[in-house]
Design a protein that fits this description.
The complex is a heterodimer of chains A (333) and B (295). Helices cover 74% and strands 1% of the residues of chain A. By secondary structure, chain A is mainly α. Chain A has a single domain, classed as MetI-like fold. In chain A, helix 7 crosses helix 9. Chain B has a domain of 204 residues: MetI-like fold (Orthogonal Bundle). The chains are: A mainly alpha (333), B mainly alpha (295). The interface between A and B is large, with 89 and 90 residues.
Chain lengths: 333, 295
């Protein structure tokens, strides 16, 4: 055996200590996997009574009645989807506008502070949004809603709508007529959700727009395009996939947003007949009812909502990562 | 007039003028984009205005030194919630930093390990799990067996911190040049010493930023604490007892019918948001690029 293939002194020791270090690091990293597995296991076992009793009816049933121990989550699933999707529809154009402003329009000295302010929106706690909506916005909305009860012409519309509502139906026009005058309800929840998810789309969109190569813009300017034409034909199509990823991240946030919504939505499981009525989302039901749930089936049903929410957010987030990843290699399409 | 200048003038004349319609669209969209940005920033300014005008009035020394007054009575403070928040956040940081930094080291320093892609995926997925669902999970894991406790709350918050710390740790570690590691290994240092004594110190600023951001994020969370730490009207630092936290108190007080409760909620919101603001400013300070510090 030649001298060269011999291990230098001390090598054996360091390789053993390397093994120990690696085992510790991997062991701690496995905690991440453990949390994930335990989450599914816990939520699945405790929500099993509900899922075995109601089966798929849990998702299609429209009655949520703790008194008679019947649980159908259809209306809160609708609540989650309606609030999230409307909030997304309003916030995405605004978020893209703010991203474009920072990346394309604003002078350098303004871009930093505006970007920081938008990121701060994400740092405001959920409960503070809820408090603000409850104390500042709700009374203003209630003032306007009250006109439906004081103004004779509007009162007539309201009465006509109320007849429809009592039968559990609505019409397109009645959908926009307020059903009460306390300010809280589906519309306020959607509004506050819109504000809360703005920073998620905005910051991803800004990063992606900044990644669009200068050449892309300059080629378009050289053709005699105006600034807006450059943005709409050269910048936005290029950044499309990345922005989509940001939108999905915001959707994930919106689906799981709890306390701000729980504080202002009114926790009602009545059928959806007006945009202004009290309603509930899956997350708001968990926050509002879990503490009071006495019967086993009620508790289990709330946890089944948690399980559903868990899988919804996993799917949305995985989709978001895939979309963003597909963009990263060359930043194209 | 030089020949080149004449050419440019001629070229300008021959180029088709931008039509009024295109000019108008351009101006209109520019206006809309600025207006949109204003709309995005407006809520933040309104919220700060609201908290500063109402919260400052309600803020008094008692806020920091007393526990909540009995139902319906005026006065009282939120010492219990402040102490509770600090206790649980400290404990949560231990969990978040330990697992988060280890996870970040694993993802960045052992990229060829077969478990790497799974851990990265699960960490990303955990980042998207709603906080309230994490509260339910910890409820099932701990509260059902041991009852409400500050420890359960801290663990829920810690779990929420982990993916944020993992992500920032991994990203900063990857910024440390390969050559730095190779230099260490070439000197005959074992890998663990290279990681702990060369790579980690070089990336310390970014890792601290990640930890601060994670703290700022979970400090405002009430949802995972409702069914774990539950709340407590007395001051305690005992992690086996139920414990209160600022966001939990804000949630309870905001929905109360009493005006004094609402004032307390506004003061608590102001304090909470200032704490979060300071934390995130510190995070920005640590993330500002600096040179290696020699040991």
């Amino acid at each position: 055996m030649s001298q060269a293939t011999k291990r230098p002194p001390g090598r054996g020791l360091s390789s053993r200590s390397d093994d120990v270090f690696r085992t510790v690091i991997i062991g701690l990293s496995l905690v991440i996997a453990l949390i994930f597995i335990l989450s599914i296991y816990q939520l699945a076992t405790v929500s099993w009574p509900t899922l075995s009793t109601f089966g798929l009816d849990f998702y299609t049933g429209r009655t949520w009645d703790p008194v008679n121990d019947v649980y159908g989550a259809f209306s809160m699933i609708i609540g989650t989807l309606v609030t999230s999707l409307i909030a997304l529809a309003i916030s995405v154009p605004l978020a893209i506008a703010s991203a474009l402003f920072i990346a394309e329009y604003s002078p350098k000295w303004l871009a930093g502070p505006v970007g920081y302010l938008i990121e701060l929106l994400a740092a405001v706690p959920s409960v503070v949004y809820g408090l603000w909506a409850l104390v500042v916005i709700a009374p203003k909305l209630a003032e306007w809603q009250l006109t439906y009860f004081t103004d004779p012409a509007k009162l007539e519309t309201y009465s006509a709508c109320q007849e429809l509502w009592l039968q559990g139906t609505s019409s397109f026009q009645c959908f926009f007529v307020p059903s009460a005058a306390d300010g809280r309800g589906l519309a306020l929840a959607t509004l506050i959700l819109t504000v809360m998810i703005l920073p998620y789309t905005a910051s991803v969109a800004r990063d992606v727009i900044n990644l669009v190569p200068r050449d892309q813009r300059e080629a378009m300017y050289a053709l005699g395009a105006t600034k807006w034409e450059v943005i709409s034909k050269a910048v936005l199509p290029y950044a499309r996939a990345g922005i989509m990823g940001g939108v999905l991240l915001a959707l994930g946030r919106a689906l799981g947003e709890t306390l701000a919504v729980a504080m202002v939505i009114g926790d009602s499981q009545a059928p959806l007949t007006s945009l202004w009525q009290n309603f509930s989302t899956m997350a708001s039901v968990i926050a509002n009812q879990f503490g009071d749930a006495q019967q086993e089936l009620h508790r289990s049903s709330v946890l089944a909502l948690g399980l559903t929410l868990f899988f919804m957010s996993v799917i949305v987030n995985v989709l978001a990562r895939i979309v963003i990843k597909r963009l990263t290699p060359e930043g194209i399409k | 007039m030089s020949a080149v200048r004449q050419d440019v003038v001629a070229l300008r004349r021959s180029a088709p003028a931008i039509s009024p319609a295109r000019r108008l669209t351009n101006a209109l969209m520019g206006g809309l984009i600025s207006l949109g940005t204003l709309l995005v920033v407006a809520p933040l300014i309104l919220i700060f205005y609201y908290l500063l005008t109402t919260g400052l009035q309600a803020l008094s020394p008692e806020f920091f030194t007393q526990t909540p007054a009995p139902l319906g009575e005026t006065g009282g403070g939120l010492k219990n919630a402040i102490i509770g928040s600090i206790t649980m956040l400290s404990m949560a940081s231990v969990i978040g930093i330990l697992v988060g930094v280890a996870g970040g080291i694993f993802l960045s320093e052992y990229p060829k390990h077969p478990l790497m892609p799974t851990i990265r995926m699960l960490s990303d997925v955990l980042a998207g799990i709603p906080a309230i669902v994490m509260g339910l999970v910890v409820y099932g894991l701990l509260v059902l067996r041991f009852g409400f406790s500050g420890m359960a709350g801290a663990i829920a918050l810690g779990f929420l911190m982990i993916p944020i710390v993992v992500r920032t740790t991994e990203e900063t570690l990857k910024l440390v040049p390969r050559a730095t590691r190779e230099a260490g290994l070439a000197l005959g240092l074992p890998r663990w010493k290279v990681i702990l004594q060369i790579v980690l110190p070089a990336a310390a600023g970014g890792i601290v930023t990640g930890i601060m951001l994670a703290l700022a994020r979970v400090a405002g969370e009430a949802a995972p604490l409702l069914f774990t730490a539950f709340g407590n009207n007395t001051v305690t630092t005992n992690l086996t007892e139920p414990m209160s936290a600022l966001p939990v108190e804000i949630f309870k007080l905001a929905t109360s019918a009493y005006e004094t409760d609402r004032q307390l909620a506004q003061a608590a919101s102001l304090v909470l948001i200032l704490l979060i603001l300071i934390t995130s400013l510190l995070a920005r300070y640590f993330s500002s690029p600096r040179k290696y510090r020699a040991k």
